[in-house]
Amino acid sequence: MNVLPIIEGLTDSNAPSDWALWLMRCPLGIIHREQMTIRRILQQRGFAAGVAYLDALLAYSNATRLPDGTFPATVVMPVHMAAGAMREAARAAEGQA
Length: 97
Known about the structure:
It is globular and about 45 Å long. The chain is built from six helices and no strands. The chain has helices at 5-11, 16-25, 28-33, 35-44, 48-61, 73-93. By secondary structure, it is mainly alpha-helical. The chain has one domain (13-95).
């Protein structure tokens, strides 16, 4: 697959825990710029929890902030919930449930 070097971090491993870690560490700018490539890779690997986390991150980073500059809980909490679900799905896929 012909992808940018930073995206290779997602494609270099077959372990869902590595995919989850990559997603949680990837800069939001890369997430935005490469969202279609990231989504395609996650979908091809059947990592639906990763796609859900990607969607939550995109909603969060595109949300209108409150007057004090913070993000509404309605976009913050789904990111945390999706991250937890993604980590759990990765553990389960690797037989560590």
